[in-house]
Amino acid sequence: MNQRTRNVILFVGISILIFLLFYFRNIVAYILIAAVLSLIGRPLMRAIQRISIKKKHLGKTSSALITLLIMLAATIGFLAALIPLVAMEIKDLSAIDVTSVVDYLDVAFAHLSNKLPHFVADSGADSGMQEYIQEQLANMLNLGQVTNLFSSVAGTLGNLFLMFFSVSFILFFFLKEEQLFSHIILVFVSSKYETKAKHVMTSINHLLKRYFIGIIFEVLGVMILDTIGFSVIGLGFNHGLVVAVFAGVMNVIPYIGPWIGGAFGVLVAIATHLDDSFPDVALPLILLVLLVVVIVQVIDNVVFQPVIYSNSVRAHPLEIFLVILMAGSFAGIAGMILAIPVYTVLRVIAHEFLSQFRLVRELTSKMTDD
What's the CA angle centered on 34, arms 30 and 37, to 5 degrees? Predict the structure, then answer.
């Protein structure tokens, strides 16, 4: 077989592989989700394996099953505690009269115009912005949209159940056989590069495990701090908890996520105090909500993120910032969320296969540090 024929076969094979990955993208997504969860659950499984009962340790099958059950129980318990609060919050917000919200905002903008004439000038453009903000807030509180949301969720319950079952099933085997996912990847690697590929997979597993576990602790940390802060300033524990959970989840979106959570907190503060005076009650509460968001973000930036974004993936903060900006420009919010894991994988591969280039050596120099 000559080289030209081999190239044609290789091209056809890669084309078929890309087509299959795209056609079965849902299954590929299930596998990737299970692989990430296996990285998170691996430390727990190893801790379970160290437990001895009558001087005997649990086998891989039993440890994997117990780990899976603990992860499922934690997820279900969290959702079981949260869903009633979210449902109550949605019910309260959707029951609010949209007209009263708009009237309340008119009073709020009038007050701000009097107190801050230089910042809230009475001009046509500012009036248009005011109407736009009112329209957006009114839409967010629209009961019809909430109903449509529930209908959409109800229509996808079958797919969610399929995903839940599929990911759980795959996750069990990824936990039981630690190298299974690596073996799946190595099937597509030439034997010539198998040793380097194995080293790449080991490095990726190590870095991404620390990153995803760090992300979980960051989200939980932001949720706890926001819950405490919102409860202290008078937003109410139930309202504060729902806003804090939303803010914690949004915090996964680098840089802009926290302010999305803060905007939701401001909305809740306004919607739950329509019967109170804006300058005396609502405005101070809004400022306190923003203060809590700022304080939590300072803690997040100083304490959480250096460990997660810098130490776990071993990259410079400026490097991380630029990567996230480029990923956001290319693929929006989804790109910002996936930027660090994808960049970590690419850095590991480049470090192993392209280390002869000076740029690659500079970008991956910290990866060799202990």
Answer: 140
